[in-house]
User: Fold this.
Amino acid sequence: MTKLIKKSCLLLTVLPLALFATEVSAPTKTKDLAIFYTSPANIEAKYNKLVDEKLQDIGFNCLDPRKRINDKYKKNWGSTELDVLSFMPIVNNSTILPLLNIDPRIAGFSPFNLLIHKKLNENVTHVGHLAPEVMLDILGIEDNEVRRKFSNSFKALDSMIAQELGVNGETVPYKKLSENTMINFEYEFETPKDMEDFIDEFQMNFEMTFTDKGYMIAGYRNFMKADDAEKILSSYDGFWTYSLCHMELSYKIFDTKGARPDMGLFAPCSMFMYIKKGSNKIVGGMPRFKNWSDLLEVGDENRLKLIQKYDMEIPEVLKEFGMKLIPNTNPLLSQTAN
Assistant:
């Protein structure tokens, strides 16, 4: 009896310590945020050739390259911390177009940025892009077919980058997503006599509204003009994506003291809009800037305030234009034609 009591007391003493030790030493679960390729050589010329000439061979293209943004920073503000910063918004139409019929939110990263950056005080150049899975998670897309086909399209891209630039890639992890990753909206209009004329006028007014607020339309992609779009996107009257940028945000986030050019993974922001046939609504969305700071764990107070400022401002501009904010769900599952 005495031995049994002693064993029981020993077990009760050791068990809580074991449980406590397990809790403390448990690793934090992480996922891949991005893949970066680094080189000690100057690979900017190779990178430009890759985007300008090679990517088309595997179905990707870049309509609105933004090369050497750091030169504009120096011209506008008189200084820069960067040796190179270029944004190459790329998209694979053959992959994306059919997926727009399953979940149009995939356009929120169509295009996505193939980034190159190097600080003046660095001896390596970085080329990288967000992991496709984290793009899908930010967009809220759960459909297995969309996730599989979108992710698979990156295999050829990463293989080509490694081969053409002569570099190896390494993944960058993240711990958790933001709680509210997207801005989603819709705009109701009276059915026009000519839909093309209506879309042209709407786009002109929309672009002017954002330009007047200091934003830049850094790119525009009309999916309805892509090869085979008339057949593949036959259920749409219109589908386009803006690459949205703000130079103050861009300079103060990616440049200046403590520069974070790696946050350019998320830029320029893709804002998508579409009109389903038979509908009198424009539906759209874009990822929030908060994703930048949360996923890259930015602690700089000034940069955090700037991100908060524009995350609040964009929804207000949309509402002033007549947009209604809506939940982030696959609109094709809930939208009914009017």
About this structure: The first strand starts at residue 31 and ends at 39.
